[in-house]
Design a protein that fits this description.
Blueprint lengths: L1 H17 L5 H22 L2 H18 L1 H14 L1 H6 L5 H29 L8 H28 L3 H17 L14 H7 L1 H13 L13 H4 L1 H27 L2
Helix pairs in contact: 1-6, 2-3, 2-6, 3-6, 3-7, 3-8, 3-10, 4-6, 4-7, 4-8, 6-7, 7-8, 7-10, 7-12, 10-12
């Protein structure tokens, strides 16, 4: 399986080398959100203190949105007949999907590096220890892997690329914005507050803020509740749970789609 995964990774990365514009969604889009929230909304939310609060949320949001790369990539492979060609070869079925996920993860890591540089440029700083920073980035990468497999399930469920794009954004936007990625979950009214508090995006953003040592703006309500107190453990547990569900589901869907 590992050899088959490596072959698919190489094939996908060669495609990116030949079509460099494929990197735009992994790099340019996150930068747009950084500057939009940091300078358009940041002046209202707290200026420099909000920019430090913002970056962990941008990291979490970006890995969710990067799932669209896997969704569209798999849907495109299904539509173009690439999957049918791979079926005729003695290749691991899981390796085909894992190859797509792995190559998209590598693009995501490049995008994460660009965002870190951008964050440092706008005044964001890592105020925790080096070990805490490594834990935070590990949480982000684990969550990115989980979201990529969600993207794989979405891509396999879609009948074509156009539907894959639509389905992907149907869940990405509410999951991302109904969280504390950009605001405090405690400021949301009614039922929206507990939904945002238990949202994995909130847990990832909160865990990273704690590890990076980035405080909330003075006028933001402090994060409270069980998730806030156990953000690191909860974010890891939810990522592992998503992987435990999506990996076998994607394999079942792949087998059904090629049967």
């Amino acid at each position: 399986m590992f050899t088959d995964t490596a072959v698919i990774v190489e094939r996908n990365l060669l495609t990116v080398r030949r079509i460099p514009t494929l990197l735009m969604s992994a790099t340019v889009q996150p930068l747009m959100f950084v500057f939009l929230f940091a300078y358009v909304f940041g002046a209202t939310f707290g200026g420099g203190s909000y920019r430090e609060f913002l970056m962990a949320g941008i990291f979490a949001q970006t890995v969710v949105f990067n799932a669209a790369i896997t969704t569209v990539g798999l849907a495109n492979d299904m539509s173009d007949g690439i999957i049918d060609r791979l079926r005729s070869l003695p290749m691991s079925r899981l390796g085909v999907i894992a190859g797509r996920v792995t190559s998209d993860m590598l693009l995501g890591i490049i995008g994460l590096g660009v965002m870190v540089a951008c964050g440092l440029a706008i005044g964001w700083r890592i105020r925790g220890s080096a070990l805490d920073a490594l834990v935070a980035f590990g949480i982000i990468l684990l969550f990115a892997l989980a979201m990529a497999w969600v993207g794989a399930v979405t891509g396999l469920a879609a009948p074509n690329v156009e539907v894959a794009q639509s389905i992907g954004f149907l869940w990405m936007f509410p999951v991302t914005f109904l969280s504390s990625a950009f605001i405090s979950a405690q400021s949301l009214p009614g039922i929206l507050r507990p939904i945002a508090e238990w949202n994995p995006v909130t847990a990832v953003a909160t865990a990273c803020r704690q590890k990076f040592g980035n405080a909330s703006p003075p006028d933001f309500p402090a994060a409270t509740g069980w998730v806030a107190e156990h953000a690191v453990g909860y974010s890891i547990a939810t990522s592992v749970a998503i992987l435990a569900i999506c990996i076998p589901v994607s394999l079942i869907m792949y087998r059904r789609s090629t049967s």
